[in-house]
Specification:
The chain is built from 4 helices and 3 strands, in the order βββαααα. It is α+β, with helices and mostly antiparallel strands. The chain has a 3-stranded antiparallel β-sheet. Helix 1 packs antiparallel against helix 3. It is globular.
Amino acid sequence: MSRERYFVTVDMAMMQISTFKTPDNTIQYEIYATNNEVDKIEALIEQIKSNDFRQEELFQRPFQEKKADEDKESTDNELQELFKVIYDLGTIETKEVVKDLK
């Protein structure tokens, strides 16, 4: 399988993977990935988005701090996994940036 160039945006408001670099001020990570690797990244992004904190949950369970902490930890683990994949598939420049994030 051949690898194609993609750009991964890891901004909670606009998390995505695309074949083009957006001209706005979002931080994007350049990677080279197969279709299967892109599918894995998309699945991770969807999982992170589904766990994203929603304000209405605060009012539904205001004193359930343990559950909130578990949700945050789960999202942190998934973000770490996403950054590991980005690092593994990234260009030299991408690896340098991601390495400094750890």
